[in-house]
Amino acid sequence: MDGIPSVTVLISGRGSNLINLFNRARGYRIGAVVSNKRDAAGVAWARERAIPVTIVEREEYPSLSAFKDGVRDAVSATQPDLVALAGFMVVLPPTFIAAFQGRLVNIHPSLLPKFPGLDTHQRVIASGETQHGCTVHYVDAGVDTGAIIAQASLAVAPNDNPESLAERTLALEHELYPWVIGHLAGSEISLCNARVQYSSRVRQEAKERGFRLSNDSE
Questions:
Q1: Is the pLDDT of residue 145 over 50?
Q2: pTM for this entry
Q3: Could you give the residue range(s) of every CATH 3.40.50.170 domain in the chain?
């Protein structure tokens, strides 16, 4: 529309990362929001700011596969340059992933490949880990198995519980995700033959910010 890369964000809940991506947008804009929950707090927030919102609820479709096709079609209709998952609690099918190959990213609250899936903070503490953090990665057909783009880490404190660890990790997410999205929008991070490529500027900024980049491209 205006030459600025457009990001469609998928949410299921309060939209914390959506709000942060909007507030810290640099080199991109939030073009649309797609949610599988009509009453998600992030939906109301987006509408208050005149961001186009599409609701795709499971109950509206005769089967799970039809619902997931509906999600894909809804996202495609927004014509995004990038698609960002932000707490979207739906496992996406291969057809969706193929449609947005190299343009579809997620943020996960652990240092992948450790602790994919749910309840990461509780599992980190139960396992006695001393380091925790978050990962932005490309989405593939597995669960949190796509190529790692960047990670931010913190030390697990002796008095941490799942709630305190979640809060501190979310602060890291709010630093990492818009930084990655901005550089993806500017084509300074890209995916080539399943390997993540970075510009020299990205490498320098990552070093300054304490972010870790994928070993695959080192």
A1: yes
A2: 0.94
A3: 1-101, 108-134+141-218
